[in-house]
């Protein structure tokens, strides 16, 4: 497996530069050195994309004029092929099949609209599939009512950029993912908009991927879902109003920076759920109006700093097996519970965070409180063991419990921020 990945990376380094030229600056490079320039459309030499692909040679450019095209699944086996749509030609799967499958290196697809693949319970039917290929570019396309919109399997060094994906918004069992990577390392997913799918973006066994600048909202399950994908980066994405938020599982060396996790407010909604994650960095993110902002289970050795937790039910929930993580410079404001746990002993470290519930003082005026802040409320522990007690959240008894625990802290975990910030950092 390692040898195969290295070989694919070498191919990607040679081929991806040519593919990137197709999108940099908003222009696709024209033909050169006598390469073919084929036209598809009414009155053109080729009436269908399939016919043009069959006639194309490596390095050719196929230009598709406006119109609706309904033809059998088109399979591209010609390397360095560029397919360009003019004024959004629409390729319709007529509810019966996949639309375009790429099985060649350094293929560029841009400016097409794919629609209506239909639903299948037997296959991961996709509008645009890339299989065992290197250095492909899928840019500025539209996808409407596709089971899976873009599907990369065993493909390396590809770029998925600027696509507009809108699913049916139907029930989870009759819906697929927007951008789906399976055993596809070192790909980039950038500046896409994904709505109404099952999972907006899904990575599995896809090492070294980068997802940046994407908007994933209104998806039935997760805005982002990935598993078994080490050394990935997720930056400047917005995940909003997704059914279950974002889930990151069974991976290590993960970096998540400057993302917004917003509005996962269902009964199982998590801004960000981390399960069995080690050696990661979670920094400069926003967690707002989620049932749970950040949930850690089996997560360890994480650097969690400079994040904003505002107006969540639970800002941070740490399970007993979440260990050795560091919380620094975070802001906690307007949350029902700042920190909650199901354990009396926590092995994570909080220091230098800002808490709107802190009522301490700073006599030496060094910017940090002179008395520690204990962020775990006694009532939070009660709710962990008896969720139905949440009905009493606004009742006077909760204030009495918390006040008693502050005076005699014997039941809540021995977790405190010894140097809470006196002023909000942002």
Shape: elongated
Structural class: mainly beta
CATH topology of the domain at 1-236: Pectate Lyase C-like
What is the straight-line distance between the termini? 46 Å
* E-strand count: 38
Residue stretches low in confidence (pLDDT < 50, at least 5 long) are 18-32
Relative strand content: 35-45%
Radius of gyration: 25 Å
CATH class of the domain at 1-236: Mainly Beta
Look at the structure and give the mean pLDDT: 89
CATH superfamily of the domain at 1-236: Single-stranded right-handed beta-helix, Pectin lyase-like
CATH architecture of the domain at 1-236: 3 Solenoid
Q: Main sheet, how many strands, which sense, barrel? A: 25 strands, parallel
Give the % helix: 10-25%
Q: Compute the number of helices.
A: 4
Can you describe this structure?
By secondary structure, this protein is mainly beta. It has a domain at 1-236: Single-stranded right-handed beta-helix, Pectin lyase-like (Pectate Lyase C-like, 3 Solenoid). 11% of the residues lie in helices and 37% in strands. It is built from four helices and 38 strands. The protein has a 25-stranded parallel sheet that branches. A 13-stranded parallel sheet has the order 3-6-9-12-15-18-21-24-27-29-32-35-38, with no helix packed on it. The longest helix is centred in the N-terminal third of the chain and has 19 residues, at 2-20. The radius of gyration is 25 Å and the shape is elongated. The model is unreliable at 18-32 (pLDDT under 50).
């Amino acid at each position: 497996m390692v040898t195969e990945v290295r070989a694919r990376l070498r191919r990607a380094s040679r081929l991806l530069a040519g593919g990137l030229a197709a999108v940099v600056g908003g222009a696709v490079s024209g033909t050169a050195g006598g390469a073919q320039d084929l036209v598809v459309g009414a009155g053109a030499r080729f009436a269908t994309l399939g016919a043009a692909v069959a006639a194309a040679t490596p390095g050719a450019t196929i230009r598709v004029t406006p119109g609706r095209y309904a033809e059998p699944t088109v399979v591209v086996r010609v390397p360095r092929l560029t397919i360009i749509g003019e004024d959004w030609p629409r390729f319709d799967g007529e509810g019966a099949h996949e639309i375009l499958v790429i099985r060649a290196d350094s293929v560029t697809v841009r400016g097409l609209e794919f629609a209506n693949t239909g639903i299948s319970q037997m296959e991961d039917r996709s509008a645009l599939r890339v299989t065992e290929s290197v250095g492909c570019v899928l840019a500025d396309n539209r996808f409407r009512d596709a089971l899976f919109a873009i599907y990369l399997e065993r493909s390396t060094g590809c770029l998925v950029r600027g696509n507009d994906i809108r699913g049916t918004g139907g029930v989870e069992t009759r819906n697929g993912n927007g951008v789906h990577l399976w055993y596809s390392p070192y790909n980039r997913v950038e500046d896409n908009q994904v709505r109404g799918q099952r999972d907006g973006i899904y990575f599995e066994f896809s090492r070294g991927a980068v997802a940046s600048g994407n908007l994933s909202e209104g998806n039935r399950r997760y805005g982002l879902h990935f598993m078994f994908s080490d050394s990935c980066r997720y930056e400047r994405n917005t995940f909003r109003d997704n059914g279950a938020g974002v889930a990151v599982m069974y991976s290590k060396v993960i970096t998540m920076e400057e993302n917004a996790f917003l509005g996962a407010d269902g009964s199982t909604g998590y801004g960000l759920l981390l399960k069995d994650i080690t050696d990661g960095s979670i920094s400069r993110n926003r967690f707002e109006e989620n049932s749970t902002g950040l949930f850690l289970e089996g997560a360890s050795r994480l650097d969690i700093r400079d994040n904003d937790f505002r107006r969540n039910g639970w800002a941070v929930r740490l399970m007993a097996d979440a260990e050795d993580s560091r919380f620094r410079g975070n802001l906690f404001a307007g949350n029902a519970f700042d920190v909650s746990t199901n354990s009396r002993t926590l092995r994570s470290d909080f220091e230098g965070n800002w808490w709107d519930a802190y009522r301490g003082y700073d006599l030496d005026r060094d910017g940090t409180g002179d008395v520690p802040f204990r962020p775990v409320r006694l009532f939070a522990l009660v709710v962990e063991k008896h969720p139905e007690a949440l009905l009493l959240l606004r009742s006077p008894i909760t204030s009495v419990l918390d006040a008693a625990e502050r005076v005699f802290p014997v039941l809540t975990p021995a977790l405190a921020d010894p140097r809470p910030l006196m002023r909000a950092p942002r």
